[in-house]
Specification:
This protein is an all-alpha fold. The protein contains three helices and no strands.
Length: 191
């Protein structure tokens, strides 16, 4: 009968009820003194709180674990899809990072190539300028034939100057000789 009553009671497993302890309250005797003598002492009185009805709490049983629905197929498929998604996203991030690094390296090499091309173009322009100047200097420069011709002309001019000088010296010597004859003839006694 108690077990059937316990089944019908609401479950109070989560509610904790206060416990009541019965204490005896003892009144101590007092001996008041008066002029007439001691007063009569009353017997001690115990104060007891009113009794409360007992509360019956049924034991709490844990609910049995639920079996997963869908079984192996649904759990395996879900795990497979989650795994594929994680692997795919990881691969995508890795490939995106590799693509970014490759693009950066390619842009750097293109910029290096562009700088090298500009240097080669500048060197080519410098070489062309030097070639033009060299051609102009070659046109202005004297060749061996020109030098030989100038040498011959210079030697001829030197010979002409030497001849002119010798002629002048000879003429001067002749003039001095003639002057000497003239002086002798002027200063010579007349006969």
């Amino acid at each position: 009968m108690i077990s059937s009553t316990l089944r019908h009671l609401p479950r109070l497993a989560s509610t904790r009820l206060p416990t009541v302890s019965v204490r005896r309250c003892i009144v101590t005797e007092a001996h008041p003194t008066t002029t007439a003598g001691p007063l009569p002492v009353a017997p001690p009185v115990a104060v007891v709180p009113p009794p409360q009805p007992p509360v019956f709490v049924s034991p709490v049983h844990a609910a049995p674990p639920r079996k997963p629905r869908g079984g192996f197929f649904r759990g395996g498929l879900l795990g497979f899809l989650v795994g594929i998604s994680l692997a795919g996203s990881t691969a995508y991030v890795y490939l995106l990072d590799e693509y970014t690094q490759s693009s950066t390296a390619l842009l750097a090499s293109v910029e290096d190539l562009q700088r090298s091309t500009h240097k080669v173009r500048d060197y080519t322009q410098t070489i062309e300028t030097v070639k033009k100047e060299q051609k102009e200097f070659a046109k202005r420069a004297a060749t061996l034939a020109d030098l030989e011709k100038l040498r011959n002309e210079l030697l001829k001019a030197i010979d002409d100057v030497n001849l002119a000088h010798l002629e002048h010296v000879c003429k001067a010597n002749e003039w001095e000789a003639d002057q000497g004859k003239v002086k002798k003839a002027i200063t010579a006694p007349k006969k």
